[in-house]
Structure formats: structure tokens, C-alpha cells
Amino acid sequence: MTLDAAPLADFADPALHAAGLYIGGDWLPGSGIPVLNPSTGGVLAEVADASPTDALRAVDAAHSAAAGWRATPPRQRAEILRRWFQMMTEHAEDLARLIAMENGKALADARGEVAYAAEFFRWYAEEAVRIPGEFRHAPSGANHILVDHDPIGIAVLITPWNFPAAMATRKIGPALAAGCTVILKPASETPLTAYAMARLGAQAGVPPGVVNVLTTAQPGPVTNAMLADPRVRKLSFTGSTGVGRVLLAEAAKSVVSCSMELGGNAPFLVFDDADLDAALDGAMIAKMRNAGEACTAANRFYVQSGIHDAFVAGLAARMAALKVGPGTDPASQVGPMITPRAVQKIDRLVTQAVNLGARLVTGGTPLPGSGYYYPPTVLADVSPQAEIAHEEIFGPVAPVYRFDTEDQAIALANETEYGLAAYVYSRDLSRALRVGKGIETGMVAINRGLMSDPAAPFGGAKQSGLGREGGVTGILEFMEPKYFAVNF
Ligand code: NAD
Question: pLDDT digit string (tens) for 415-425?
Fold first, then answer.
């Protein structure tokens, strides 16, 4: 099957329906997991349901390919990644439509994701040939210290449904650049994108067994089986903090190195001296990219008293003007949520906030119909006691809170166990940086609604994660430093 042969969006190619497990370069037929279209509730396809035994076959395949891939010169690994970038770019529209179908996000968001996702392959093609080392004098003067970096070994990569392409490439890119072979387990809600990318990878020249992909309805037992295999040396996980905690405990049993990209609860701070229009533009991006289903999504808007009312009015007008509809409809700006359960959760958070005195400025009721739609919603005067102030909303709801002083804003921003991302709007750059330093997150966007960049270290503090993806350091998550004490 080639992606050229038929537009994925039409699902005209039966090979795609039958997307089985991708192990050792072979497609093994399988079924058992229906993939739903959140825009309609209909079934798009059915994918294989891997067992723990299948997962160990994938570890075998990754192990068989490991020595060859590790020995492949960095330049050659780089060129394969660069070709994969190229192929994703050539097939960007097919991939975007596929993402819009299985995830439901609006096509514009899906196109943005494909471009962002492909960039990880280009960035890590460039980093593969720049793997760092160190050479120093020992302080004693007795010898030298030489530090090399080896590929860490077989890596298990687990990704969520909200960015089906980008969360996979953000792991595969650095792992392959480092010389590791991998087993990717995508979320069962959005496996088709991962399988389509694996096909492109094979066409780009990724050798059999270097990238293996499996879907499963029993992620716990399947992952545990792989983590218990001594050949597996790395777990790179993106998903909720709850599942991250479970996996850290499991990985501890065999002391597997873990990188964790977990949940968020991003504060969005707007000071009186902010450019109101710029803050509203940024708020719309920070809140509504992916209809709010992003770990970096602005989850709590803290607005200083002097600008508060104008901000709420401006935000409500912009939110109310958005067109909600099926992801694949080019006119849609906001697609459906991933599942009916996600809609129920958002509805519960909004209802509880309103019962505690929040003012519903726009939106606030799930939309009828067969898809899983929730309208863009703005809540003002939200009680800090409301659950919505503490939970990751993961939907198109903007709760706005008022503050008076800078210290108060920082304290409110930090009132959470999460520490992934924060946004600060102020025309006074020194204030924005001072506030940014005070906020306990791994990332701060200043006068911008978007921070994700393959060339920057992405990751969280506190219970939002461990380690960083992207940037110069992302490749080191897949490498083991080796120190030589040298006399010469
Ligand atoms: P999730 O934790 O439910 O699932 C993530 C992945 O883990 C899926 O592939 C799932 O099948 C798998 N999984 C679930 N239980 C497992 C188990 N016991 N063992 C092994 N794997 C298991 O998260 P989700 O609902 O898919 O994604 C949303 C969450 O992801 C949000 O909390 C969001 O903030 C977070 N997220 C974080 C980042 C980041 O970079 N920090 C990026 C995107 C999403």
C-alpha cells in the first residue's frame, strides 16, 4: 500500500482498514479495537488488539534490529529521518484529514499538527550528527575525564490521543537519532495516524524492527510485559499524571529510565498594562488550539482588575463567534471532544462552577446530535473552590478569575500540583520575566499564545513530568552517558 494510491480520508484503501500490528517490518493482521469518528460517533476502522505475547515479539524485533541501527552512522540515521520528514510533508494533507477523522480536531489544527510533528524528524535529523561528548582535566590533575553517550537501548513509547502525530514523532525522532530502536503504543482512540506514519517511515528507509507499532485494549498488561523484559531500557510516556504515576511504579521494578510528559493546568495571566487585543489573540490560541484538548491549554485565566471586564467581554465575543462542527469540514473552527465521557466531564465541571456562583458569559451546554460537541464557553467570577480551578478541563471552556497584585497572581498561578506551562501578558518585559520566574512551570510564554517548538525543551515541573522533549537536550533522554577515566 502506498499513501499515494488512495486518499486516506476516503478510506478507499482496504490495507488501512486492516491496519494490524507493525512488528519487525511486517504487518500482522488483527482486529478487535474499533476506531470511532468523534464528529459522528460512527466507526472508521478496526485495529488489532495486541496481547502481552505480541508485545514481547515486538521487543524481539526491536532487539534484532538494535545492533544494526546503533552501528548505522549518524549521518545515515539523519538522512533517513530527513526523508521521513519529507514524506510527511508530501503527505501532509492526507495525514491531516486522517487526524481530523479519528481525533475530531478541526482541519486547520490537524494541518498545524502535521507540520509540527514532521519538524521533529527534521530537527532530530540535524541533531543526530551533533551528539555531544565531554573531555576535561580531572581536578586532581591525575587523569582526564572523557564522557561519551551511548544509545540507551530499546525504548517503549506511549502516546495520547490529543496529538496522534506529534506526540509520536517527538519521541521517535530523538530515539532514532540517538541510535535506539522503539516500540510505539499509540492511544487506541487514534491509532490510524501512527500506523500511517509507520508506513511512511518504511518508505523513507527505516529498517525493519527499528520502529514497531502496536495497539492494544489492555495497555497495562502489555506495557508491564515490556517493562519487565530486561532488554527494554527506556520508557517515554505522554499522557495523564494518573497513568504516569502507575507507570513510574511499574518501571521502578526493573529500574527502567523514564521520561514523563504529563498533565497540565496552565495559568494565563493578563496584567493591566497588557495589549488587550494581543492578549485576546493569544488567549484564543492558548485556549482553543485543538478545542482545548492540549496539555498546554490555558486552564485558568487570571486577569488584573483594571482590564478584567474588557477581557471577559472580548473573550466571550471571540469564543461565541467560533464555528463548531465536524473536524473534516474546512469551515469548522472547533471540532468535537474525543469521547462522550469527555463531554460529560466538561459539563460536570461547568455545572459545578455555576452552582458555586460562576457567571456563564457564553456557551455552557453540550450540543445535541450524534457527535461529541461542547460549545466554546466563558465563565466569569469563578470561585477558587470550584473543581474547575484544580482539574485539567481538556475542553473549550475558559474560566476567568480576577486578581489585584503581582504577588497574588503568582500565588494563584502556583496553586496546583501541575507545572507544565504558563502564559503572561504585560507590556513591561521585566515584569513579565519576573512573574515568569516566580511561576513553577517548565515553560512560560510571554506575550504569546503558543510555546511548542521542536527546537525548544518541552516539559513540566512538579507533577507535570520528568525530563524534556525536543530541543538540544531531548536526544539525551535516549542516551546513557559513559564516563572513561583516562590516563595517557
Ligand atoms: P492517558 O494517560 O489516559 O493515556 C495516555 C496513553 O497511556 C494512552 O496510549 C493509553 O492507552 C495509555 N495507558 C493508559 N493506561 C495505561 C497503563 N496502565 N499502562 C500503560 N499505558 C496506559 O491520557 P490521554 O487521555 O490519552 O491524554 C490526555 C492526557 O495527556 C492529559 O492529561 C494531557 O495533559 C496529557 N498530555 C500531556 C502532554 C505533555 O507533553 N505533557 C502532551 C499531550 C497530552
Answer: 999 999 999 99
